[in-house]
Write the structure tokens for this entry.
Amino acid sequence: MAAQIGSEMHERASQIGLTFAEHIAYLERAFPDATGEFSALMQEIMVAGKIISGKVRRAGLVLEMGRTGRVNVQGEEVQYLDEFSNETLVRMTTPGGQLCILASEESAEPIEVPPPYAHGRYAMAFDPLDGSSNIEVNVATGTIFSVHRRRSVDGPGTLQDLLQPGRDLVAAGYLIYGSSTMLVYAARQCGVFGFTLDPSIGEFLLSHPNLRIPENGGIYSVNEGHTDEWDDRDRGIVRAFRSRANPSGRALNARYVGSLVTDFHRNLLQGGIYLYPATASHPDGKLRLLYEAAPLGFLCEAAGGLATTGTTRIAEVTPEVLHQRVPLFIGSRREVAFVESVYQNEWPESST
Ligand code: AHM
Ligand code: MG
């Protein structure tokens, strides 16, 4: 990502306690050519996040957390709250005229902007409720989104507007429905900002301006239940993190929630690496490029971290299909660089 804008407006946009609307208004003024469309889209995503947050928080009260009985394009059971979150995002972001096409984890095909709404200059991909299998056990979930500028000229958007590499993202971020609800996003040249929902006033307030991930992480996050499904190299990497044979010279702490947003968010704040290597069941990796790996990779790099498939920077992977999967290693620079070095066959003697 290019260097951050260094204007007075950026400084004003970074004051703790600003509402999301105030923050976005300041940032918009740092870009004289801004039309307001991007700001409007971000506000719509923010409102969708508030609505989803409200619903997720009531999941245990109303019998809304049951399964719908249907299976999505990924072969996963669709939960009621997956559907609700999906519909809420589409409903909140299509009338405003900023989007030309959308993609969702819950939808096999691209989602068109329905008439009579106008087609705008952006294409958005999202995972409406990441980690939704955790809802029934009251574990944090999230929403991930990514925004590209369209490539087609006008009218309805096309698949090609969505199939763009992460390096061309305009913005990306996530909402996390945890002990607090937070909105964390990165926009080109602006850095990473985290907002916490104050339930007493129903507003997201800036709590984490200009977020930076610690360069050295003390946590590794991976589903070690899949150990037998990894290849030797990935097994060796994880072994190195839990022994001293990694650049820190000590064993890292293991933390794995099983919600990507939640595991990533903790590592962003505390420093660490999240790993989801290829497995025998998912030879291309489990996580989806467009609405999981690429947006979090963009945000992580904007915060000073790294994201790779092992061999390729996530931002450089050009999607060929909508629901493409990739192996993912993401987080603090030192730990991800170590994974990259192992993939480049620079495996330290002592670790084998
Ligand atoms: P989802 O988007 O359907 O919830 O699936 C993605 C989830 C990630 O949130 C999580 O990190 C991963 O899948 C967990 O997979 P596993 O159960 O194999 O560890
Ligand atoms: Mg997901």
